[in-house]
Amino acid sequence: MEKTYYPKAWLMVLPVVAIVSFSAIVPLMTVINYSVQDIFGPQSRYFVGMEWFREILGDPEILGAFRRQFLFSFAVLAIEIPLGIAIALCMPRKGPWVSVLLILLALPLLVPWNVVGTIWQMFARPDIGLLGIGINGLGIDYNFTGNSIDAWVTVLAMDVWHWTSLAVLLCYAGLQAIPDAYYQAARIDGASRWAIFRYIELPKMRGVLMIAILLRFMDSFKIYAEPFVLTGGGPGNSTTFLSQYLTTMAVGQFDLGPAAAFSLIYFLVILLVSYVFYQVINNLGKGVG
User: Fold this and answer.
1) What pLDDT shows up at residue 289?
2) How far is CA 160 from CA 109, 196, 254, 258, 265, in A?
3) Whole-model pTM?
4) Which of 31, 54, 174, 183 is most exposed, with minimal Cβ within 10 Å?
5) DSSP of the chain, one letter per residue?
6) What is the pLDDT of residue 1?
């Protein structure tokens, strides 16, 4: 069938191009422009080339923040995705409890980031917090304000509490989309529960799992408000992540050039790792589903 081209149809996409240019391309070009300049004022700026990029990539504190950020994001994925799949598999497919469970699961997602940090700041305090008092009551010396490992575990537990529901809801939607005919055929063949999960449910959930992994990686890699409210980045710099460094550099110190270079490196790392995740998950799914 011969395709018909309408040159004027391109006019229909011009509003989209204008919106994308205003919301993404113009700010990005502004950041790129700032990243190669040393800015002292509106009329006082000097071209410095790649100097800020070399400075950022050679800063041991920022490189340490990158390592902490990767460790945190991979720990989040290693806990929240399997836990989300397990909870989704345990949920009923039909019945009155489905709506109740979905509402309860969605509740943590409705809590603002800074409120989550405040809740856990009070909940985990070793002197007045229920969690802190309970853990110390078991004979475990717990103090997230003075011990870096306790701080890490608390920040991780807070994120798991806040965001595992997202993985559950996505996985549950993927399971609900599997036709009953697949399960009927598996029962006729005498497939075990593990075989049903391995060869039917897991491949069919590949699309929603990709969304869950990408969303959780990108969001956890940009985390700012929750750990800032909970620990303030401490003790020391143990829970100071990249967003906090960037905010301090851009807003606190007003180093616009280095902050712009930092922003671009930060953005490119998220883009590159997300692309790698996308390719890996796509290739794992080929020939299975």
Assistant:
1) 47
2) 11, 27, 34, 33, 27
3) 0.87
4) 54
5) ------GGGGGGGHHHHHHHIIIIIHHHHHHHHHHTEEEEETTEEEE-TTHHHHHHHT-HHHHHHHHHHHHHHHHHHHHHHHHHHHHHHHS-SSSTHHHHHHHHHHHHHHS-HHHHHHHHHHHS-TTT-HHHHHHHHTT----TTT-HHHHHHHHHHHHHHHHHHHHHHHHHHHHHTS-HHHHHHHHHTT--HHHHIIIIIHHHTHHHHHHHHHHHHHHHHT--HHHHHHTTT-STTTT--HHHHHHIIIIIS--HHHHHHHHHHHHHHHHHHHHHHHHHHHHHHTTT-
6) 58
> Could you say which residues of the chain have pLDDT below 50?
289
**Mind listing the pLDDT tens digit for each residue in 13-57?**
888 888 877 778 888 888 999 999 888 877 788 888 899 999 999
